[in-house]
């Protein structure tokens, strides 16, 4: 799981932005869940799961802003 998160963080900037498009943002949501599972953090796992379905309506915008500002999507440290 850590390898997948590392690969997502190592993607080129333009590809990260493309993955922030509303329908494709599911990649970042699954990445958040995998990141939380790798760190064995229950709270972030729940937050990650909530960003897949109900949070999908606004998380793409948050992810675009964070990718532009810091180069990583929300909770993908």
Query: What is the ordering of alpha helices and beta strands?
Result: HHHHH
Instruction: Report the strand count.
Output: 0
For the largest beta-sheet, the strand count, sense and barrel status come to:
none
Count, helices: 5
Shape: globular
- Cα(first) to Cα(last) distance is 13 Å
User: Can you give the helix content as a percent range?
Assistant: over 70%
- What are the low-pLDDT stretches, counting only 5+ consecutive residues below 50? none
How many structural domains are formed by the residues? 1
Structural class: mainly alpha
Radius of gyration: 11 Å
Proportion of residues in extended strands: under 5%
Q: If you average the pLDDT, what whole number results?
A: 90
Give your account of this protein's structure.
This protein has 5 helices and no strands. The chain is mainly α and 77 residues long. It has one domain (2-70). Helix 1 (2-9) packs across helix 3 (26-39) and helix 3 runs antiparallel to helix 4 (42-52). The model has no long low-confidence stretch (mean pLDDT 90).
Provide a brief overview of the structure.
By secondary structure, this protein is an all-alpha fold. The chain has five helices and no strands.
């Amino acid at each position: 799981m850590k390898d997948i998160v590392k690969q997502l963080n190592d993607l080129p900037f333009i590809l990260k932005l493309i993955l922030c498009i509303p329908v494709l943002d599911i990649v970042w949501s699954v990445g958040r869940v995998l990141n939380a599972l790798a760190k064995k953090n229950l709270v972030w796992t729940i937050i990650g799961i909530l960003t897949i379905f109900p949070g999908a309506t606004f998380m793409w915008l948050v992810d675009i802003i964070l990718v532009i500002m810091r180069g990583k999507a929300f909770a993908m440290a």
